[in-house]
Amino acid sequence: MLSAKSLFQEILDNDASFRLFCSIAASGEAQGGWENGRIAALVPQSQRALAPKIARHGADEDKHGRIFHALMRKRGLEPVPVPPDTDYTMLLERNGIGLTHDKLKADRPLTVDDIVTYLAHSRVTEQRASEQMRLLLRLFGDHQDIGRAVRMISHDEDNHLAYCHEELLRLAYAGHGRAIQRILRECALAEIRIYRDVSLAVMAHMGRVLRWSRARNALLALGIHALYVWERAVGWRRMVTLEMPERRDALGGPAPKAAEFA
After folding, report:
1. What span, in angstroms and rounded, lies between the C-alpha atoms of 143 and 140?
2. pLDDT the model gives residue 262
3. pTM of the prediction?
4. SS3 letters for the chain?
């Protein structure tokens, strides 16, 4: 029977598919770390109180990238190049979602509108990250090899999502509500399309590595398309709502000191 657990277990058990999965994940986390680091450095003066939180966000993403590399090292594996069609963060940027790398590479301070765009984009993508990690937490939270990594990353992603909610609500109360809702909707509709495309690409690559049958590939693709139809119809709305989180000031202060994952 094909289930989420059996699918992930098959990927986990095979060195080649596990290496590909971790390489894709590590690359995306490292890119997120760089982007947040640059945004923290360029925050406008009126929003300087946000800079430490954005830097903390970036430090968490960098940590996640190191965790995926550590998981590979524990099995004696080296990372592989990330296929371009599976590069979620690159495809988001190419489709105009978030702040461009050209803007982040410049030394000019960002504007408040840029910060609104960044936070709205993050609210959408962190919703996806939080949901994915909660799924892995449910399936593998007690796994001997990857359980600790899953628990750590899931906790961080929930913090990131809470931070986005709280800061966007603060900016909405300051008069940016209409812009926030517009950007959230645009980001959500673009993200679900890109997520569909990346999911199809990842499964296609995994299918070749694991030598899945045509029938199994077709069934997985059908499931991905069905999820997209649901998200395009109603599911995107969960990505644009804002509510004050239970975790207040989730990224306040420096990252807690802990032994590096290994």
Report:
1. 5
2. 45
3. 0.94
4. CCCHHHHHHHHHHCHHHHHHHHHHHHHHHHHHHHHHHHHHHHCCHHHHHHHHHHHHHHHHHHHHHHHHHHHHHHCCCCCCCCCHHHCHHHHHHHCCCCCCHHHHHCCCCCCHHHHHHHHHHHHHHHHHHHHHHHHHHHHHCCCCCCHHHHHHHHHHHHHHHHHHHHHHHHHHHHHHHHHHHHHHHHHHHHHHHHHHHHHHHHHHHHHHHHCCCHHHHHHHHHHHHHHHHHHHHCHHHHHCCCCCCCCCCCCCCCCCCCCCCC
Cα within 13 Å of Cα(2), Cβ side: 11
As a whole number of angstroms, the distance between CA 42 and CA 54 comes to: 11
Contact (CB, 8 A) for 156 and 57: no
* Contact present, 174 and 198 (Cβ < 8 Å): no
| pLDDT tier at 20, thresholds 50, 70, 90 | very high
**pLDDT score recorded for residue 246:** 92
Q: Report pLDDT digits (tens) over 56-92.
A: 999 999 999 999 999 999 999 999 999 999 999 999 9
In whole angstroms, what is the distance from residue 58 CA to residue 152 CA?
Answer: 15
Asked whether 193 and 88 are in contact (CB, 8 A), the reply is no
